[in-house]
Write the structure tokens for this entry.
Amino acid sequence: MKMLSFLIKHRNDFIYLTLLLFSVGIGPRYRALKTVQTKKWVGSIIGLILISIVSGYSALHPIFSAILGIIAIKVTSIKKCHVVAFFFMFGYLVFFRLADKFGLPLSSGQTNLIEMIIVLRVVGVAFEINGSWLAIAQAKKDENKEQKEVKTRDDDFLEIINPSFEDLFHYCFNYIGLLTGPYYRYRTFDDYFRLPYSKYVDCLGFTINTMKMVPFYISMYLALSNIWPLEYILSEDHNNRHFVYRMLYPWALFAQFRQRIYSGMTLAESVCTAAGFGAYPVQGKNRTGHGPTVGYLKLKKMSEQEARVTQYDFNTVESMDVWGCETVVTLRDSMKVWNKAVQYWVAMVVYKRFPVKPLKIHAALFVSVIWHGFHAGYFFCIYFCPFYVMAEDIYYKLYYKDATGLKKKILGFIMWFLRSHSESYQCAAFLLLSFDRIWIYYSSVYHYWYGVWLGFLLLGMLLNKIHKSNQPRKVKGEVEIKQKVVSN
């Protein structure tokens, strides 16, 4: 009975898992389809079917919002389409999550994930369209200058991207990455159908290598969530436990959360590898979300013979660097290896394009929070990262950066422990969601970690000031020594 109740409680997760495995399984057959149009339509039809299975009547939300978003892109000028698409899609996301306020039923968490991916795709392609136009305009402006400056950017940015309504439709609804990512650019989507890479990459080998750890992730998630359930953290029994137990309980919550994310993201990557989607030659120095960063136009001209013998990778569709997530020393580095495709989207769409430089980081964090949802837990988790990073950066530069040998290992472990503890503390808020639930747990540990953060920051600022004040003396002493050597 306990097992049955567990299955019923998590039935949506099991349906989602089954659909992800189905998406992996059909990859080889999808890749084998001959014509581009057939492949596009089959991919979109499968995507729409998956949305309908997951969402039921709520499937109207992602379908309706995507179509309206595409229309908004096509009817507005290329100068403004990205702004219109951004505000429309995030406006609809607000409406979608507050549907009960308008007399409509709220959708499931799985439908919410699909809507989140649709938002990334529609807004992302609008920024691609506008960005390609800006790049071409800038290139023409540079050509008109009497003295040309040396180019520092690759020529792959000098292509106009202006897909038709039909191509935008296929991009939004293709089943690859639709359930839980990864996010990929329209250019990657278009390359998949036009370039020969998917025919020659070892899809089976990459898929097996990507999926081999999934059973372990799922087993760990089930075990940890059964031994240390989330709801226990709000119980009176938990509050009566020793302070150290209460302080470390979020480690178990964050561990199970990581296993769940690892399994979902890894399966999502496997959907791509099984279909050959996102494969590029390694010489392109491919980056998550972006694709090739070097010699893109040369890669596009690669012959069938060259494509047959070249080496490939799927870095473009890699979402999680699992080993990095577990081992990196700093929170700053941890953020770079966690959900990399979405991090890329936030960086390209928000951070780099936001017009007010001092507010760039705040805009990026705010959009990230709103994209995840309106719960207080997302603000507590995401928006407090910079405050820890401020303190962390000071200690990293003062003590860890130039350390060597055993000292570096000891300091690295201490920084890793503090980074992991901070993430666990923040993850508790992310999982508890509502302010009252977060307050219950944080009160049970006396909100201690915010005090620790503040103490770290103030002490770090003091140590940094002392270090800087000692620098002139050190430099002066070195100059005096050199002068004595010269005079002798």
The longest strand covers residues 280-281. Residues 448-487 form the longest helix (40 residues).
